[in-house]
Amino acid sequence: MKLTQAQLAKYMDHTMLKPEATAAMIDKTIEEARKYNTASVCINPYWVKRVHDGLEGTDVNTCTVIGFPLGATSTASKVFETKQAIADGADEIDMVINIGELKGGNDQAVEDDIRAVAEATHEKGKLLKVIIENCLLTDEEKTRASKLTVKGGADFVKTSTGFSTSGAKAEDVKLMREAVGPDFKIKAAGGIHSLQEAYDMIEAGANRLGVSASVKILEEAAQQD
Which residues are catalytic? Predict the structure, then answer.
């Protein structure tokens, strides 16, 4: 597989979710996203307005995370957080499912949680990605979570927060692709550090990549252009 640097950049949510991220670190992330023209900048909700303003005049979206990283906040909290983030300028929402309810077999609670956030997101014409945190799930649970993401009305299913025991794996992306079919979108995130790893995820079926090592990977891609 070979993509140009510009093509690969549009797969990337350029990510800065570290809890210790300072304003200077956020501004550097914005500057890098503007330079490489990534798909989005993904940050914690506190920084949404700063990123939205910093990306003005580009087609780089502002992406934020909801119920992050554990997914164990109430649905009402997730909905409020989503509405506030969109009001601050978010174009894309990445929410974490209620992992405990999924593992406990309460699929309806998981679906309802997703649907509530999907409705709040789509009401404003924005995009919803749903993080299922694969490293905590069995293959059966990954399949079930992926299908519940579709049923709940989201736009993407996403592998990982990047803050648990491991991140994206190509075999999980393939499993998710089988679960959601050929047209539903998948985001692979967490632990993607090289050009080959990025290609592996795309070949497995990922439509978007959550990456903090975007600059390194895109510079690697430029050497192959």
Answer: 94, 158, 187
